[in-house]
Amino acid sequence: MIHIKDLTKIYRVPKQNKKKSLRNFLFPVYEDKIAVDNISFDVEEAEIIGFVGTNGAGKTTTIKMLSGILTPTSGKIIVNGYIPYKNRNELSKNIAVIMGQKSVMFYDIPVIESFKFYKDVYSISINDYKKRMELFLDKLELSNILNIPVRKLSLGQKMRCEIAVSLLHNPKILFLDEPTIGLDIIAKHKILDFFTYLNKEFNTTIFLTTHDIADIDKICKRIIIIDKGIIRYDGAIKELKDRDQYKIIEIMHEKDYNLEKILDGFKKEILVSEEYKTTIKVVKQDVGNVVNNLINNPKIVDFNINALSLESVLQEIYLNDQGELL
Ligand SMILES: Nc1ncnc2c1ncn2[C@@H]1O[C@H](COP(=O)(O)OP(=O)(O)OP(=O)(O)O)[C@@H](O)[C@H]1O
């Protein structure tokens, strides 16, 4: 569905010059800024990919190249059989790009007018339009808001409408850039459940970029980590979590317990310390022995062993800067 090989995007930016002279203003010197550096990956039909990275990693630039908004500096890129920057019109019939902070609807008029407009833009038949609207009314609960002007909608309502309008033409691929930004947990889950539904029901391929790692953990099996324009990891989320060398142990205990004494000799980090509950992080190899000590101690009431959350795993990757992970 998506094929990218050795893809690079270099921006030409004016070189920062501390000296503010007329010469520098009239004849600026430029330098190259490598935003995406020789990346390669493939995405199969009906996959849901999480594309993550810190600020400035190259995510939006990649999505813009995938959707034909930007022309790559070099490399190969094919999306649904098209070269995006050459066949943007054809490609747009098969994809949707949803950016959490950008709107495609008309601000001052009722929501339904935007739907009618895009029905004509995409030349959608009356029958297909009715079917799609039924789906949106049902799954995104739009029935009570279609006649309200966009500017009067809450952020959650607006986002549900944005998504529905962008999906009127039943695209095969969705490029999502921060689709749940600013939403409360209920609105967020509704939207994520809807994406999962589209994926199952219509085999829609989903390419999701977000800073909200919980979103990725909820709906993606595969994750691509990009860092300073370079792909650091491309694989299963489960494998990434399994590679992690730590476990989290949540210990329920009596008030007067002594952790140092119970776990004497083990390297541990205390993450949360409460009166009757303490959460610690220990290396995987020590878990067996730590558990032994906990079981044999009368001050310990109960305990749970958990893997690190995807968010913590990624945090460690970014912080440790371990280089190539692949
Ligand atoms: N139009 C542009 N001109 C020059 N440099 C740009 C342009 N757009 C992005 N960049 C630079 O390219 C790099 C990658 O930016 P990009 O927006 O793709 O990152 P990102 O991963 O989407 O970041 P964020 O999560 O902050 O949105 C950054 O260093 C950014 O400053």
From TrEMBL:
Keywords: ATP-binding, Nucleotide-binding, Transport
InterPro entries assigned: AAA+_ATPase (IPR003593), ABC_transporter-like_ATP-bd (IPR003439), ABC_transporter_ATP-binding (IPR050763), P-loop_NTPase (IPR027417)
Record SUPFAM superfamilies: P-loop containing nucleoside triphosphate hydrolases
Taxonomic superkingdom: Bacteria
Segments forming a coiled coil: none
ABC transporter domain mapped to chain residues: 2-253
Gene3D superfamilies for this protein: P-loop containing nucleotide triphosphate hydrolases
Record GO terms (molecular function): ATP binding; ATP hydrolysis activity
Homology family: Belongs to the ABC transporter superfamily.
Protein name: ABC-2 type transport system ATP-binding protein
Organism listed in the record: Tepidimicrobium xylanilyticum
